[in-house]
Design goal:
Radius of gyration: 20 Å
Order of helices and strands: HEHEHHEHEHEHEHEEHH
Number of helices: 10
Structural class: alpha/beta
Shape: globular
Distance between the termini: 47 Å
Bound molecules: 3-methyl-2-oxobutanoic acid
Strand content: 5-15%
Length: 257
């Protein structure tokens, strides 16, 4: 297991780290071959459940989806998001992180925030729970979905937070919607990898929500690029199925008992 983390660390300044989200076994087993990290993101709250914010996602929902994802992963490092209100203090975080790891057999957990999570992350790492950081736009606490790091103060704080997380021992940090030159500076100043989303090509790796990338989630935001139109493929398949059922071409003898 240790080797998966060191493989990822070794990629810094060498080759890009590939990360994607998965919420189910079926997607996980397709992307696993190509990814370094598969994240069970709490973005599933908006992507699958149509929640207005990720704040409505519960520990149970994360655990059930993660159990499904686990079945599809053979080689990637599997990270599970700790949902909102499950790490309000160190003891709550430790109890819930242990439950996530025990029930889902994931390799690490991800928490949103910097300095304010100092004691929490310290406790998790002291208890041998690998942690991925998340800085910049933090969907669990964000009031607005604007890019971060344009103001001088914000830049200073983000850089400080990144250093704090590195010193605490997180194995990498997701940097969400952070202004490009700041993402570059953070990446340069850290010895651990940065994983960008909307934060430029200068990060050590990239992450996207798989449903966005394959065109299953009709979202239009700057940081998403649609690499396929799976919704269209499904539509075509369903039209064919419907036609064959109506015309009694399906099921054939070979499909029947
Ligand atoms: O919840 C999520 O999917 C995430 C990624 C987009 C980074 O946190």
């Amino acid at each position: 297991m240790k080797s998966k983390f060191s493989e990822i660390l070794k990629k810094k300044n060498r080759s890009k780290i590939i990360c994607l989200t998965a919420y189910s076994r079926n997607i996980a087993q397709i992307i696993d071959k190509h990814c370094d990290i598969v994240l069970v993101g709490d973005s599933l709250g908006s992507v699958l459940y149509n929640y207005k914010t990720t704040r409505n996602v519960t520990l149970d929902i994360m655990i059930e989806h993660s159990k499904s994802v686990r079945m599809g992963i053979k080689k990637s490092l599997m990270v599970v998001d700790m949902p909102h209100n499950t790490y309000r203090n160190s003891s709550e975080a430790l109890r819930n992180a242990k439950a996530i790891i025990l029930k889902t057999k994931c390799d690490a957990v991800k928490l949103e925030g910097g300095k304010k999570l100092y004691h929490t992350i310290k406790t998790l790492i002291k208890n041998k729970i690998p942690v991925m950081g998340h800085l910049g736009l933090l969907p669990q606490s964000a009031k607005s979905f604007k890019a971060k790091g344009r103001k001088t103060n914000e830049r200073k704080n983000l850089l400080k937070d990144a250093k704090i997380l590195e010193n605490l021992g997180v194995f990498s940090i997701v940097i969400e919607c952070v202004e490009s030159s700041l993402a570059k500076e953070i990446t340069k100043k850290l010895t651990i990898p940065t994983i960008g989303i909307g934060s430029s090509v200068n990060c050590d790796g990239q992450i996207l929500v798989t449903d966005d990338l394959i065109g299953l989630n009709p979202i239009k935001v700057r940081f998403v690029k649609r690499f396929a139109n799976i919704a269209k493929e499904i539509n075509t398949a369903v039209i064919k199925y419907k036609g064959e059922v109506k015309n009694k071409k399906f099921p054939k003898k070979v499909n029947s008992y």
